[in-house]
Amino acid sequence: MPIASMTGFARAEGPDPSRPGTTCTWEVRSVNGKGLEVRWRIPPGYDGLEIAVREAVGKRFKRGNVSVTLSVNRPEEQPAYRINEGLLDQVMAVARHWQQHLGADAGIAPPRLDGLLALRGVLEPVVESEPDETARDTRDAALITILDQALARLATARAAEGARMEAVLTGHLDTIADLTRRAGDTASLRPEAVKARLREQVAALLEAQTQINEDRLATELALLAVKADVREELDRLTAHIEQAREMLAEDAGPVGRRLDFLCQEFNREANTLCSKAQDVALTRIGLELKAVIDQFREQVQNIE
Prior knowledge:
Helices cover 60% and strands 13% of the residues. The chain is built from nine helices and six strands, in the order βββαββααβαααααα.
């Protein structure tokens, strides 16, 4: 499979079978992360979906911070009301009691219907009943199917972004390969230049001390020779380039972590190359290498 980015967004919508006319919308977005972290926002009444959401995301992705949001869109309807007959009977009974107790001379008029309905609790909204267990299981299965559609679209978006990133990464590797070749071709690495530089450094050592131990001289010469030779660093850089190209081309699942580790190896060789550089040209190439490697690693940070 091609490399995939950890950045993307997708959505999917479908009906809620437990509530006619109600639609549910899943929105999923992801950004880069060291591992897989799932966060969700689910409205009350749908809490049983949380475990299924985590499992569905885990089947699709291995890395990234994934946010999942469920929105429930109910149709615009006039609210339904019902009369609390028990409370109304109590109010009527109290009214009749006091009419009888006080008598007709008290001037108390019989209660009017509009006044009774205005009393708190007599007229109350109809609360929508929650689906039973069977209906809830059917609803949850249907909603997870819709979520799978959104996750599939997110995977497509991440793959498309990954394809664009692969082109950028390949360009960076081409630049690193060119700089490595140029470093190997610099005049300071030619055998005659290395020999001349060693002669100058040995002469400087001999001038600094009238007497010098032969073992000390041999040690200093060995150190100078090692510092002058950057072929090992260049060979490693070449090997790392080939390994990175193979990772980008292989069909072995997510490679982001391995590429990130390889970037550390790239950077280590570039640092050593700069520390060993004996002239300005090689130093400049080493600094350019470090800059391109940093750009390469920035892109790698977003690969799954």
